[in-house]
C-alpha cells in the first residue's frame, strides 16, 4: 500500500513522526509546567525562556568549553535547575499566598530579561548545533527513513515523562510533595522540610525545560526566540490536559503533537491553529481540562 487516505505513505508517516517529535517537546515542557503549577500554584511563564536557556547552555558548552552532547544533557539541565532554585528562593517564595496573576507577571518579566540577555549577546539568527555522531543517519523502515536523532528524542522524552509521573504518583517522595502543597503546616509538623521540597520542586520543573532544550538543540537551530515561539502552544497543551495534571500533560502533549503533524498533511492551513481550536472546544465542554479535577 503506497497511499493512506489518498496521501503518499512516506509523506503521511513523515508528518506522523514529526508530530511525535514535536509532541515529545510539548509533553516535557507541559510536564514541567504541570509540576510547578500542581505543586506550587505558580503559572511559570518563564518556562519557555528556561527551555531556550538549556539549549543555549548546551551550545555555549560545546563552542566555548568543548563539552559534548552527552555531558550537556546532564550539566545544562542542572544549570537551569540551579537558576530556578535561585529564582524561587529570591522571588517566588514571597508570592505563594497571593493571586496567580502576580506569579505570572513576575515570571513573564523574567522571561523577557532572559530572552533580551541572550538576544543582545548572540542576536536573533539561529546558531547551529550538530547532531551527535551516534545519531547520524537514519533507520530504513521499508516505507520510510526514520532519522536516528528523532527516534532518540521520542524515546528520551517518554523515559523522562514516565519516570517523573512514577516518582510523583507512585513513590513516598511524591506523596510528601503532594502533602506539602496541600497542607504545608501539617506536613512540617511531621518533620518534613517543606520550604526545601518546594524549592527543589521548582528547580526540577525548570530542569525538565532545560533538558528539553538540550534535546531540541540538534533538532533545530538554537535561538534566543525558540522558547517564546513554543510557550503559547505548551500553555494550550497544559490547559487542555488539565492544569496541574501530570498524566494529562504527557498524554495531551504527545497527542496534540501527532494531531498537529497530521493536520499538516490533510489541511495545512489549519496546522497552526488546530491546537487552539481543540483548546476552545475542551474548555467549553470540560473547563477543568481532559484530566483535570473539577473544583
Overall tally of structural domains: 1
Main β-sheet: number of strands, strand sense, barrel status? 2 strands, antiparallel
Strand order of the largest sheet: 1-2
Instruction: Give me the CATH fold name.
Output: ABC transporter involved in vitamin B12 uptake, BtuC
What structural class do the secondary elements suggest? mainly alpha
Give the overall shape.
globular
Fraction of helical residues: over 70%
Uncertain runs are none
Strand content: under 5%
Number of strands: 4
The gyration radius over C-alpha positions equals 19 Å
Q: Give, in order, the helices and strands.
A: EEHHHHEEHHHHHHH
Describe the structure.
With 295 residues, the protein is mainly α. The protein has one domain: ABC transporter involved in vitamin B12 uptake, BtuC (Orthogonal Bundle), CATH 1.10.3470. It contains 11 helices and 4 strands. The chain has helices at 9-40, 47-65, 69-90, 100-122, 148-170, 172-182, 184-189, 194-219, 228-241, 246-266, 274-285, and strands at residues 3-4, 7-8, 138-140, 145-147. The chain has a two-stranded antiparallel sheet with strand order 1-2. Strands 3-4 form a two-stranded antiparallel sheet. Strand 3 and strand 4 (145-147) form a beta hairpin. Helix 3 (69-90) packs antiparallel against helix 8 (194-219). The longest helix has 32 residues, at 9-40. The model has no long low-confidence stretch (mean pLDDT 87).
Amino acid at each position: 500500500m503506497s497511499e493512506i487516505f489518498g496521501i503518499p505513505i512516506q509523506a503521511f508517516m513523515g508528518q506522523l513522526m514529526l508530530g511525535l517529535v514535536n509532541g515529545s517537546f510539548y509533553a516535557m515542557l507541559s510536564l514541567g509546567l504541570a509540576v510547578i503549577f500542581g505543586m506550587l500554584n505558580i503559572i511559570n511563564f518563564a518556562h519557555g525562556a528556561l527551555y531556550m536557556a538549556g539549549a543555549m547552555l548546551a551550545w555555549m558548552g560545546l563552542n566555548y568549553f568543548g563539552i559534548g552532547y552527552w555531558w550537556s544533557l546532564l550539566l545544562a539541565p542542572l544549570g537551569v535547575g540551579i537558576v530556578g532554585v535561585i529564582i524561587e528562593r529570591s522571588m517566588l517564595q514571597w508570592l505563594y499566598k497571593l493571586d496567580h496573576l502576580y506569579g505570572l507577571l513576575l515570571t513573564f518579566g523574567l522571561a523577557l530579561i532572559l530572552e533580551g540577555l541572550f538576544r543582545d549577546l548572540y542576536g536573533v539568527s539561529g546558531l547551529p548545533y550538530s547532531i551527535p555522531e551516534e545519531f547520524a543517519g537514519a533507520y530504513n523502515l521499508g516505507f520510510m527513513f526514520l532519522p536516528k536523532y528523532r527516534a532518540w528524542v521520542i524515546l528520551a522524552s517518554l523515559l523522562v515523562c514516565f519516570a517523573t509521573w512514577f516518582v510523583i504518583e507512585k513513590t513516598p517522595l511524591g506523596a510528601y510533595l503532594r502533602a506539602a502543597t496541600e497542607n504545608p503546616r501539617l506536613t512540617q509538623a511531621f518533620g518534613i522540610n517543606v520550604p526545601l521540597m518546594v524549592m527543589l520542586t521548582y528547580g526540577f520543573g525548570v530542569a525538565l525545560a532545560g533538558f528539553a532544550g538540550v534535546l531540541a538543540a540538534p533538532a533545530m537551530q538554537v535561538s534566543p526566540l525558540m522558547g517564546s515561539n513554543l510557550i503559547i502552544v505548551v500553555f494550550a497543551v497544559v490547559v487542555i490536559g488539565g492544569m496541574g495534571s501530570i498524566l494529562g500533560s504527557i498524554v495531551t502533549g504527545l497527542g496534540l503533537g501527532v494531531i498537529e503533524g497530521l493536520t499538516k498533511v490533510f489541511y495545512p492551513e489549519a496546522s497552526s491553529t488546530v491546537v487552539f481550536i481543540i483548546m476552545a472546544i475542551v474548555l467549553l465542554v470540560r473547563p477543568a481540562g481532559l484530566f483535570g479535577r473539577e473544583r
